[in-house]
Design brief:
By secondary structure, this protein is an alpha+beta fold. Helix content is 35%, strand content 22%.
Length: 496
C-alpha cells in the first residue's frame, strides 16, 4: 500500500498528492540521476523576502487568548535566526510566513501581514481570529494552510508551549524547509513514497546497522570515517537489492532527512554547536526507532546523517539536491570511495548486530500481537467509518503519536489525532485510528465505536478492554451530515 506523506515529523504530517510513477530497479543509474544541473530557483515563491514590519512600534495589547508577548518574542527570534542564516545553508532566504494558533479560540499571531489584510498589526507581529471556514489543528504543525492569499506554516501553541526555546526554533526551521520543498523550482515538489518494506525484519535490521555505521563515521575522521561510510553504503546496497525500494527510500530521506538537518543546523551558533546537536539528537532518535515504526522514522535519521557528513566535505552537494537525489551516492563520490566492500566481508558485530537481532525479533513478535489486537478492535468490535468519497471535500488530519503500516489494515496511528472535513470534526484523544486508501474510491478513516453517547450533533465514544480504556474520541457533525448503522458499526453519510 502506498503511504502518503504527512509533513509532520514525529509531530504532524500533511498529506500530499501522489505522483504516478513506477519505482525503478535499484542500480548504478540512480547514481547518475542524483547529480543534475542546479535547480532553477529564480521563479520560486520561496525567494520572496519577508515584508518589513509595521512602522509603528506602539500598540494597545491585543485581546487574544495567546500569551502575546511570549509568542511575539518567539517570532522575533525566528526572524533573527533567518536573518543570521542569510541564505547560507540552502542558498535562499529562509523567511516563511508563520501563524501561531490557539486551536480552541482560533486566535492567531503571525510574523507578517496576510495579502488580504485580514490580520491587524501590533508592533512587529499581526493578530486576529481565523474564520470558521479555516481549519485548525490541536496537535503539531501544518506546513501549507491557505489563508488570506498566503501559504502558511501553522504551529499550534499548546504543542509549542511544551518545548524549550531551542527546540521551538528547530521546529520552525524544520517546517520552514518543508514549506520551501513544496516549490518545484527548488526541490521538485513533494512526492509519494512507499516504505512498507521497513516493517520486514531483515530491512529493519539492515537500516539500524546502517544507522550505527553512519554514527561511527560521524564520530571519526580520515580513513576510519571513509571505511565506516563504505560499510554503511554496502549495508544499504544489500537491503535495496533485496527489497527494491531505492527510490522510495531516497524520496523519504530527502524530504524528512533534509528537514531534520535544517532543524539542527539553522539554530546552531557554530560548527561545534552543530556537532553537539547532531550527536545528541541522532543518538536519541536511534534509541527511539526501536519502539516505533521504522518506515516513518528512518528517513529523518539517515537522511540527516548523510547531509551532515556531506557538509564536512568540500563537495557543493546542496546545488544538486532534489526530491529524487541519492545522498548516499553523493557522499560516496565526495569522499572518493571507488567501490564498496562485499557485504559478507563486513564485521557487522561492531555495529551491534547481536543486540539488534535480538531486539528486532522481539519487535516482530510484538507486531504479531499488535495485528491480533487490531483485528479485535477493527473487525470484531463496532467501528465508525468515514469514506472520503462520501464528503463534499476531503479530510484534513493532524496528529501527535506513532504511525505504522499493516498490509491488512492500511495505516494505523496511535495517539492524539484531529480530523476535519465537510462532515465536521473528530478529536481522538487517545487510542487507535485506521486510514486506508487502497484506491481513490475506497479511501476511508475508521475509529472504534464502543459506548456511543449522542447529544445533538456531539457524539462521544470510549472503548474499553476489561477495565482499561484503549480509545476515546469526540465528534461534532456539521449540518447536512448524520451517521447510520453500517455493518457491525456506524458510517457518517450526507443527509438526503
Amino acid at each position: 500500500m502506498r503511504v502518503f506523506l504527512f509533513v509532520f515529523s514525529i509531530l504532524v504530517l500533511t498529506f500530499v498528492a501522489s505522483c504516478g510513477r513506477t519505482a525503478p530497479v535499484y542500480d548504478e543509474a540512480l547514481q547518475e540521476s542524483s547529480v543534475e544541473e542546479p535547480s532553477r530557483r529564480e521563479n520560486c515563491p520561496a525567494e520572496t523576502p519577508a515584508p518589513p514590519p509595521p512602522e509603528e512600534t506602539w500598540y494597545v495589547m491585543p485581546e487574544v487568548s495567546l500569551p502575546f508577548d511570549t509568542v511575539a518574542s518567539f517570532l522575533a527570534h525566528t526572524q533573527e535566526m533567518f536573518d543570521n542564516d542569510g541564505g547560507a545553508l540552502w542558498g535562499f532566504p529562509f523567511h516563511v510566513p508563520i501563524l501561531i494558533v490557539d486551536p480552541v479560540t482560533r486566535d492567531v499571531i503571525a510574523n507578517r501581514a496576510d495579502p488580504s489584510e485580514y490580520l491587524a498589526p501590533a508592533g512587529h507581529v499581526f493578530y486576529g481570529t481565523l474564520p470558521e471556514d479555516v481549519r485548525v489543528w490541536a496537535a503539531g504543525v501544518l506546513t501549507a494552510l491557505d489563508f488570506g492569499g498566503e501559504q502558511w506554516v501553522v504551529m499550534s501553541w499548546p504543542f509549542l508551549r511544551s518545548k524549550d526555546h531551542i527546540h521551538r526554533l528547530g521546529l520552525v526551521a524544520h517546517y520552514a524547509m518543508h514549506w520551501h520543498q513544496r516549490c518545484p523550482d527548488f526541490f521538485g515538489g513533494l512526492l509519494a513514497f512507499d516504505n512498507s518494506h521497513m516493517n520486514e525484519l531483515e530491512a529493519r535490521m539492515s537500516i539500524r546497522l546502517e544507522m550505527n555505521a553512519l554514527t561511527r563515521a560521524f564520530r571519526t575522521t580520515g580513513d576510519a570515517r571513509t571505511a565506516y561510510v563504505a560499510d554503511a553504503l554496502a549495508i544499504r546496497a544489500e537491503r535495496r537489492r533485496i527489497f527494491d525500494h531505492a527510490e522510495d527510500e531516497n524520496i523519504f530521506m530527502n524530504i524528512e532527512g533534509l528537514a531534520q538537518y535544517t532543524e539542527m543546523a539553522l539554530p546552531a551558533n557554530s560548527p561545534q554547536d552543530i556537532r553537539a546537536r547532531v550527536l545528541n539528537g541522532m543518538e536519541n532518535m536511534a534509541f527511539q526507532v526501536r519502539d516505533i515504526g521504522l518506515e516513518r522514522a528512518f528517513g529523518y535519521f539517515v537522511g540527516a546523517m548523510y547531509a551532515f557528513l556531506l557538509n564536512e566535505t568540500d563537495a557543493a552537494w546542496e546545488q544538486n539536491i532534489n526530491v529524487r537525489a541519492d545522498l548516499g551516492y553523493m557522499l560516496k563520490d565526495a569522499m572518493g570511495i571507488s567501490e564498496l566492500p562485499p557485504i559478507e566481508t563486513i564485521n557487522l558485530m561492531r555495529f551491534g548486530y547481536n543486540a539488534i537481532s535480538r531486539e528486532e525479533h522481539e519487535w516482530a513478535d510484538a507486531r504479531a500481537r499488535m495485528l491480533a489486537w487490531l483485528t479485535e478492535i477493527f473487525i470484531n468490535q463496532p467501528t465508525l467509518i468515514i469514506y472520503g468519497n462520501g464528503l463534499d471535500d476531503g479530510i484534513s488530519l493532524g496528529f501527535s503519536g506513532h504511525m505504522s503500516s499493516f498490509t491488512e489494515f492500511g495505516t494505523i496511528i496511535i495517539g492524539n489525532t484531529d480530523f476535519s472535513g465537510s462532515f465536521g470534526t473528530l478529536n481522538l484523544r487517545n487510542g487507535y485510528f485506521r486510514r486506508d486508501e487502497a484506491d481513490s474510491d475506497s479511501f476511508f478513516i475508521m475509529v472504534t465505536a464502543q459506548s456511543l453517547v449522542i447529544d445533538g450533533n456531539r457524539i462521544t465514544a470510549q472503548a474499553t478492554d476489561g477495565n482499561r480504556r484503549h480509545s476515546a474520541w469526540t465528534m461534532y457533525l456539521n449540518e447536512g451530515y448524520t451517521f447510520i448503522e453500517y455493518g457491525n458499526g456506524f458510517r457518517v453519510v450526507r443527509c438526503i
